[in-house]
Amino acid sequence: MKKSTRNFMIAISLSLLIILIVLFATDFSKSISYLSAANPGWIFLIFCLTFGTWLFEAITLKLFAAMRNLAIPFLFLFKITVIGTFFNGITPFSSGGQPAQIVFMQRRGISIGESTAMLVSRFLIYQTVITLLGAVAVFKAYPLVSQKISNLAVLSIFGFALNSVVLVGLVLFSLSPKLTDKLIHFVISFLHKIRIVKEKESLIEKAMRELRFFHSSMKELVRRPFVLTSASLSTLAQLICMISIPYFVALSIGTPVNYLEITAVQLILFLVVSLIPTPGASGVSEGGYVLFFKSFFGEGIGAALLIWRFFSYYANIIFGGLLSAHEIGFKSRSRS
Fold first, then answer.
1. Domain that holds residue 55
2. 269-280 burial by CB neighbour count: b if 16+ within 10 A, else e?
3. Residues 132, 263, 48: CA angle, nearest 5 degrees
4. pTM
5. Interval 4-23 mean pLDDT
6. Among 29-38, 78-87, 213-222, which is the least confidently predicted range?
7. Does Transmembrane helix count among this protein's keywords (predicted)?
8. Distance CA 230, CA 232 (A)
9. Residue 125 to residues 148, 150, 153, 239, 322: CA-CA distances in angstroms?
């Protein structure tokens, strides 16, 4: 709990610090003027896009739950999705979302094996779609984007490469039991050697039991082309909602931009910040947004940054935190 609180404070502090620096380094009065004149209709649509990223991810989870004949209510899966965004936002490399979701689902009686199979299936589809979109952004939109953001565009290649490596590794992990077995034995043996793990053999046995179940789940997924296609489409819709936010931010403050151009830049920025280890990529996300989008927004960059970061990050923290607290309270009341 203390570590989560520390990560939360680091993420919020870094984010706020960079935003304040940007606001005072640019024309502060202009930023306030753009904010006060922002179109409420477009702002509401931006919130709808944020909601859409949660909704389509929950739909993906529901598809995998139905594939496994799990009668998990859609509203709970939506809740778990938003909770995951909260923990992703306060942990390095956005690594805390899935473990937190597994814990919350286990508290509702869903086994670790079932929840892990669902979440990793979702992550596998997500990585596949984001990597394919990244390929389009890097190899098709790169010449156009590089004109706007100069040599910074080269960072997108590293982001794309990292996501590709993650995808390849995940596929190997999912479909190669022998490789996974060796990896599990190595990791647990190492943790035992440095005295982090005490009961080595029992932990290996438990891990192998869960992994056998997990691998069978992955093989079942491969045999379900309809589920794969549907999950890929819902994930694509989720990502389109996410990368479309800057375009509607521009509309909200009256800045004319090209949709395909600005969404390509947003996708490249996403690939770049995935390299950053700070909780929620705080600090670098804000700085990167200014560097990548300054040529689009001009004097309105401060206002655009505030609107974008609120809906792409702080909304996850606010709603995810509230739903996490509600779920903890719900379970406590159930026990009582």
1. 2-335
2. bbbbbbebebbb
3. 105
4. 0.83
5. 74
6. 213-222
7. yes
8. 5
9. 31, 32, 26, 12, 28
